[in-house]
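Record type: monomer structure entry
Structure origin: computed from sequence
Chain ID: A
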Amino acid sequence: MIRTVFIIWVIAMGLIAFGMFGIDKRKAVKGQWRIPEAQLLTSAALGGGIGAWLGMRVFRHKTMKKKFTILVPLFTVCWCILAMFIFGRVQ
């Protein structure tokens, strides 16, 4: 049960983070109101690290900001370690 919830959570948060990066990039290009950086990073911290990383690459967005280039991969590694505990790879 916990494994299923974990997988669904990470997929959902990844999609949300990816979408947020795409929306923010589009708004940046149009000069409109933007999604706060804290919200983008929070989506990555809550399990959407892979989606955030893909969003950064696909949309070429926030790739020059040091806090994004450091924190998004760090959050992803943390969630990968958590996944190893949940799926029994680490004891």
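Annotation 1: Residues 2-30 form the longest helix (29 residues).
Annotation 2: The chain has a mean pLDDT of 94.
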